[in-house]
Amino acid sequence: MTNRKEQGVIALNIPATGELDPKTRAYFDLCHEKLGLLPNVLAAYAFDETKLRAFTDMYNDLMLGPSELSKLEREMIAVAVSSVNHCYYCLTAHGAAVRGISGNPKLGEQIVMNYRIADISKKQMAMLDFAVKLTSHPAKIVEDDRQELRDMGFSDRDIWDIASVAGFFNMTNRVAAASDMQPNDEYHAMDR
Questions:
Q1: Which 3 state secondary structure label does DSSP give 133?
Q2: What pLDDT, on the 0 to 100 scale, is given for residue 190?
Q3: Which range among 5-14, 44-53, 103-112 shows the weakest confidence by mean pLDDT?
Q4: pTM to 2 decimals?
Q5: pLDDT in tens, 29-41
Q6: Under DSSP, is residue 6 helix (H, G, I), strand (E, B) or coil?
Q7: Domains delineated in the chain
Q8: How far apart are CA 144 and CA 24, in angstroms?
Q9: Which string of b and e fits 21-54 if b means at least 16 CB within 10 Å?
């Protein structure tokens, strides 16, 4: 077992790579192949492979699965929610994803700092307004908020997806804060 405190994660007994289930090892190898790194969030969850699989299954479904929301829009939600929550890990990692997917190095920082100044469509602005309100004041979401999204062209399924992505990142932001999770250094230089 190895201790990952030096990587900015609370001191949990995380198995060394050789001690991981072969399926987990293969997933980690795929991350290295596609991303050039193993995201620290995955290393953090590796202390319990059941929790790791639950996390990655939910992430992959919400962020990569079928949806009328584009991958960029889902990453934009992740960043806007993480900005409200001041989640350093997710702002860094998903800000890099916004830069990479959009091909616009300024967009990630605009959404990190204040999505309202970002050069995005009115429809995307409404989407982020909803996700931020859901993050800041969930009890104040009312039918008018959902109708505003419908009026912008979002379906009820899209609203579900917006809420699900926002909810997921509210959860991960809190786990990252509680565990002192630090982003991989590589994220800072990506797609600049």
A1: helix
A2: 85
A3: 5-14
A4: 0.90
A5: 999 999 999 999 9
A6: helix
A7: 17-64 (1.20.5.810), 71-189 (1.20.1290.10)
A8: 44
A9: eeebeebbeebeeeeeebbbbbbbbbbeeeebee
